[in-house]
Amino acid sequence: MAGRVGTFDGMHLPTELISQTDVEGSCGSDPSWLCETVYDLTNGNTVLPGVIDTIVKVGLILLVAWILTLVTRRYFARLVARLVAPDTSLATRQLARLGEGAAGLVPDDADPRRTARVHSISAVIGSTAAVIIWSIALITALGELGVNLAPLIAGAGIAGIALGFGAQSLVEDCIAGLFMLVEDQYGIGDIVDLDEATGVVEKISLRTTVLRGVDGTVWHVPNGEVQRVGNRSQLWSVALIDVDVAYDCDLATARQVILDTVQTVCAGDDWSSSVLDEPQLLGVEALGADGITIRVTIKTEPGTQWALQRALREAIKGALDGAGIEIPFPQRTIWVRRDAESSADDPLAGAP
Question: How many domains does the chain divide into?
Fold first, then answer.
């Protein structure tokens, strides 16, 4: 059966070939079903099908990237929540070592900072994954729009190398901050010693830790510069009191007076809720140049040890004074020697 014949560019061609040639000119050599459908619906429009096809493809790419971002964030949030679960946290492992004496030190959820840690870690990992997903999506979308990606990718590679060389310390800070959060070395509100800076943690980011010292100084410490961490308020603290008494006092009496005073203060209304265990009189800690040092320790709630120490020192001073036990102070014997010649010239040398 003879086919229909039409004219295309001065040549007599079958109508089917002319139609296919127009579609390829509008939608490319490998036209999609969408472009062909739009071409048919627009009665052979050579511009609109290709534009609509490109817009739909770019939209689908962005939609898939958005969905992947949501799924990735949810996945990492659940993964981090399992990794930072209460039964595997540092706090719970420490409580397990403490045994029965650990009751009441931490609430039933085992780690009051767990929610904040999970949020911080999952936000960092989720943001990193989102940047990767959207970068790939944007590059793919630019390719669909006809942008030549070779110079763009080459330029991005050179810029990445330059940024990598210039931001080594930044990467180190971020990696150190991530491990610090995962290991729960400290949290907001903890009193920590970071070698050069000591104070209360006010803010934690992936790059820096912000401390406020006892004198009000705000310290910004890069996480990569932290070589050691001393956390003075995790789970529980210890109030440590060293009391000096004179060498000629009765040590048994002094120990009893100190212990009775400490027990009375700890059992009072002001401190009973902060003391977690019975005071421990450790005995003679040192034989110093001016007196004998007796040490007492009390396990307290985190961060309350310093105020309790001040109250105990005041009470012990009054109790020792009432018991007639001397608190020694530095005493020195000074010998003044003068030679015979200077004594003869000094008219006051022989004066009484």
Answer: 3
Phi-psi region of 295 (alpha: psi -120 to 50; beta: other; left: phi over 0): beta
The pTM score is: 0.56
Indicate whether 216 and 291 sit together in one domain: no
Does 19 map to a domain?
no
Query: Comparing 204 with 109, which gets the higher pLDDT?
Result: 204
Q: Report pLDDT for 340.
A: 57
Domain ranges, residue 139: 56-166
- Tens-place pLDDT, residues 168-204: 777 788 888 888 877 878 887 888 888 888 888 888 8
Strand segments, DSSP code E, in the chain are: 5-8, 11-14, 191-193, 198-204, 208-212, 218-222, 230-231, 237-245, 280-287, 292-300
CA angle, corner 289, sides to 284 and 291, nearest 5? 45
pLDDT for the residue 46? 53
Distance (Å, whole) CA 46 – CA 48: 6
Question: Positive or negative CA dihedral for 309, 312, 313, 314?
Answer: positive
- 202 closest CA partner among 180, 214, 187, 215: 187
Q: 245 in a domain, yes or no? A: yes
The predicted pLDDT at position 3 comes to: 44
Hey, what amino acid is at 250? Answer: D
Domain shared by 108 and 129, yes or no = yes
